[in-house]
Specification:
The structure is a single chain. The protein has about 60 residues and is an all-alpha fold. The chain has a domain of about 45 residues. It contains 2 helices and no strands. The radius of gyration is 15 Å and the shape is flat.
Length: about 60
């Protein structure tokens, strides 16, 4: 199953590199990242936050 995720993530990356549409590139790149993350979650057998570092910055809500 990990091979399926790896192959799918790579196909998303290839598609993102071939399209000229910036929104489509962003979408495909995000899909590749999510697919790769699913691979690591299924491989580790853990939760999505396993090994994740806690957020150390606070969002003030103020515009930059």
């Amino acid at each position: 199953m990990a091979d399926d995720h790896t192959a799918a993530a790579e196909e998303y990356r290839i598609a993102a590199s071939r399209t000229t549409s910036v929104p489509e590139q962003r979408y495909l790149t995000l899909r590749a990242a999510r697919t790769a993350r699913r691979q690591s979650i299924s491989r580790d057998g853990g939760s999505p936050s396993a090994g994740a570092k806690p957020c150390t910055t606070a969002w003030s809500g103020a515009p930059m």
